[in-house]
Amino acid sequence: MLYLDNSATTKPYPEVLASYIQVTNDFFGNPSSLHKMGSMAENLMRQARKQTANLLGAEEDEIVFTSGGTEANNLAIKGTAFMKMHRGKHIIVSAVEHPSVMEACLQLEKDFGFDLTILAVNEEGRVSPSQLENEIREDTILVSVMHVNNEVGTIQPIEEIGALLEEYPNISFHTDHVQGAAKIPLDLKGAGIDLCSLSAHKFHGLKGTGILYVRKGIRLTPLLSGGEQENHYRSGTENVPGIAAAAKALRMAKEDYARLGKALEETKMQVMKRLSTMEGVVLNTTKGHSAPHIIHFSVPGIKSEVLVHRLEESGIYVSTTSACSSKKSLPSKTLLAMGKSKEEAESGIRISLDIHTDRSQLETMFTALEQAIKHIMKMKR
Amino acid sequence: MRFEHILVRFGEISTKGKNRSKFVERLRRNIKEVLKDFPAIRFQSNRDRIYIQLNGEPHQEISKRLTGIFGIHSFSLAAKCESDVEEIKKTALEAINSVYQPGDTFKISARRADKTFAVPSDEMNGILGGHILSNTEELTVNVRKPDHEIKVEVRTEGTYIMFQDTFGPGGLPAGISGKAMLMLSGGLDSPVAAYMTMKKGVELEAVHFFSPPYTSERAKQKVIDLVEQLSNYGGKMKLHIVPFTAIQEQIQQQVPENYTMTSTRRMMLRITDQLRIKNGGLAIVTGESLGQVASQTLESLFAINDVTATPVIRPLVSFDKPEIIKIAKEIGTHDISIRPYEDCCTIFTPAAPKTRPKLDKANRYESFVDFDSLTQEAVDHTVTIDFTDKKDAADKSLDSLL
């Protein structure tokens, strides 16, 4: 088996899973309860929060635990929009955002009368900071640009955008860091980021836990009402085992990437080199400004889904666009935004690696891919 | 731009004569302690400076921590280059470019510590000023009140280009003046008293009275968090947690209600004094402020203080509450202190505590109970948490889970 869909989700570290089970068993008290069981859970959660904050270069009270990346993105965007709607209703996002950002914005536009500017990207999938600045208006309240694109791996110029937004103190700056977390350093304070979303299962934690960094001084309207947990931002009894697991996974993943990230980058380059010589393959990931774990390519003429299933028969797991949208089998919006043809956008394949990926098996993948392409092309004729 | 150095200047230390090197060494140790999670940094010190060589570690975070260390008068970010006019020009321009906004003013203050350097200081000011003026836009010179003062120091080992002076808290390096015991309740006052005592170089060990089930684990956690916050200033601290329940229950039963508070305080002071002897302290620090509550009238202080001849330092004696709150906010203890858990001072508060207790009465009421053995027992069962290694402060049993 060769699992190459690490952008969709990663396998939890065994140590993380062990923590999750132990915490579920031994720290099952409600952190809000007064008694010792509650205080034990609360204490563990506080340590987890402190560790998470340290790893992200943030303060403890700037960390809000959520149910995942989607909730973190929704809370950041809608929370800001509702908090600031009396001041302005204009939001700027990039054209290549994840659906949990894009759909949240579209909902604000459709149902709540917000005004949305969707920024075009260049052929690399990158936003131009100066173009972004041109779109800023008096009533702009929020800019949301992802850190690393989940489909093609493009890294956005977050630091530059943050720097230019410093001139606009009324605009909140959100970045969806779900694909970049642990893999590509992001200096939250240095880059002037106000809100930043992470998801634990993308760095070998468990599904059901996300993190939203909310810079001190930034206020959000909560989306959930109730017991006012998580600094009032996210009511509901905290998922203590998930939170502990997330903190542990983040620590381990950061250590792993610091140690082995370079080798992963080299592997990515080798894979890209090999793919570029393969007949029928068009690379969509560019060499510069891209994440060390994502390689995206198209095989025009072959629908992505067919290739995915063909590779699956050889025990190789890759994906089409993003896992969240692939069931709709529509052409990739990201690729279209990058100026790719419809045919290319319908035939995209994403390989997402991990530092633990067994490289000796990649040769098998290349062979299987070559054969699959040849075979399917022949069938079509 | 990347800063390679931070240059630290001393405050009151500079006036010390023969003991100066001891002060500098202590400060250097304290800085090292606070910055020990940045393994790449290196230190160099001489009579009047400490240079921190950053080796790629983030200057923002390090600067933030330096602003809290006693004994530091001010510090500057510095870039170092060869003592060569062209190199200095280049580096100074880079430095100003990384900070100025259109419309700002600047000034160059060059100094030659190395008198063999060919260009005199005045001339250097002119050369660098001219170079910057002709390579920037909307930046002008103002020698009286510049927005940015760039200090250039030519030394034999190289030239330091410094700017962005940031002030430290001043005072003396923590630990230089000996040790005292701090009575730490968890309220707003005692952490502020701790901070002010530490400022004068006093090393503190905190004493907290813990009365389960009347006070909770969370109240204890609050104190642990306070000590952890305070150890950012002192570099290290110990916390003694005294089991106090038995004594409080005895007081409740044996002492008339309006004297319970006086007796409670007296017992606390006695225990703290015994812990002081055990741990080699020379004084006791409290957060008492005159007239704030019943236990803090002069009569009360007199009756309470009678149990010891040890100096009791009360840095807040003349402070008003708003002043204390302001400092608590500045030193980051406010938000911890206001967490709403009962502490042992509040659980048995009588409806009408005596504001003018009589010493002989207090002595008489207490004479019916063997408080000597009770306090001895409390001292013997005191649990000490050592915050010297910060990791110890966190619950180690949780480490494997995270």
Automatic annotation (TrEMBL), chain A:
The keyword S-adenosyl-L-methionine does not apply. Signal peptide: none annotated. Residues 3-363 form the Aminotransferase class V domain. Its cofactor is pyridoxal 5'-phosphate. The keyword Ubl conjugation does not apply. Pfam families: Aminotran_5. Keywords: Pyridoxal phosphate. InterPro entries: Aminotrans_V_dom, Cysteine_dSase, PyrdxlP-dep_Trfase, PyrdxlP-dep_Trfase_major, PyrdxlP-dep_Trfase_small. NCBIfam families: PRK02948.1. PANTHER family: CYSTEINE DESULFURASE ISCS 2-RELATED (PTHR11601:SF50), CYSTEINE DESULFURYLASE FAMILY MEMBER (PTHR11601). This is Cysteine desulfurase family protein.
From TrEMBL, chain B:
It is an enzyme of class 2 (transferase). Pathway: Cofactor biosynthesis; thiamine diphosphate biosynthesis. It catalyses: [ThiS sulfur-carrier protein]-C-terminal Gly-Gly-AMP + S-sulfanyl-L-cysteinyl-[cysteine desulfurase] + AH2 = [ThiS sulfur-carrier protein]-C-terminal-Gly-aminoethanethioate + L-cysteinyl-[cysteine desulfurase] + A + AMP + 2 H(+); [ThiI sulfur-carrier protein]-S-sulfanyl-L-cysteine + a uridine in tRNA + 2 reduced [2Fe-2S]-[ferredoxin] + ATP + H(+) = [ThiI sulfur-carrier protein]-L-cysteine + a 4-thiouridine in tRNA + 2 oxidized [2Fe-2S]-[ferredoxin] + AMP + diphosphate. GO terms for molecular function: tRNA-uracil-4 sulfurtransferase activity. InterPro entries: Rossmann-like_a/b/a_fold, ThiI_AANH, ThiI_fer, ThiI_N, THUMP_dom, THUMP_ThiI, tRNA_STrfase, tRNA_sulfurtransferase_ThiI. Belongs to the ThiI family. Catalyzes the ATP-dependent transfer of a sulfur to tRNA to produce 4-thiouridine in position 8 of tRNAs, which functions as a near-UV photosensor. Also catalyzes the transfer of sulfur to the sulfur carrier protein ThiS, forming ThiS-thiocarboxylate. This is a step in the synthesis of thiazole, in the thiamine biosynthesis pathway. The sulfur is donated as persulfide by IscS. This is Probable tRNA sulfurtransferase. It comes from Metabacillus sediminis.
